[in-house]
Amino acid sequence: MKKLLLAVLLTVMMFGATATSHAYEGDWHGGIRTRINTEYERIERGIERGSLTRHEARMLKGELDGILIKIDRMKQDGRLSEREREIIHRDLDRLHRDISREKRDDNRRRY
């Protein structure tokens, strides 16, 4: 878990995003934290297996970073409302579809 958190933090730093620690704190109702970790792992597996190019992985990680930044903004009042959780889940659904689409297209990493 620590390695995954470190990897996400490094990714955020690499893309110049300034997400605060809010996105990593607290018990999020509805499994948002689990979904974020799952999508990050899907991207990493795609890189390892060659089904995602560097460009695709960078784009998808940027999309994930955007979701983390949005969570940070939403949690400035100390919590996520039901509506905010719905918005985040919608964004995570979109990311999930984008990952699936990019993994299944004909672009492959060349060795």
Class per helix and strand makeup:
mainly alpha
Radius of gyration (CA) equals 14 Å
Rounded mean pLDDT score: 81
Number of helices: 4
Through-space gap between termini: 30 Å
Work out the helicity level: 55-70%
Q: Largest sheet at a glance? A: none
Number of domains: 1
Topology, number of strands = 0
Give the helices and strands as they follow along the chain: HHHH
Strand content: under 5%
Unreliable spans: 13-27
Assign an overall shape: elongated
Characteristic terms for this protein:
111 residues, mainly alpha, 0% strand
Describe this protein's structure:
Helix content is 68%, strand content 0%. It has one domain. It is mostly helical and 111 residues long. Helix 2 packs antiparallel against helix 3 and helix 3 runs antiparallel to helix 4. It is elongated and about 40 Å long. The relative contact order is 0.18.
Topology:
Blueprint: H1 2-14, H2 32-49, H3 54-74, H4 82-104
Helix pairs in contact: 2-3, 2-4, 3-4
Brief overview:
With 111 residues, the chain is mostly helical. The chain is built from four helices and no strands.
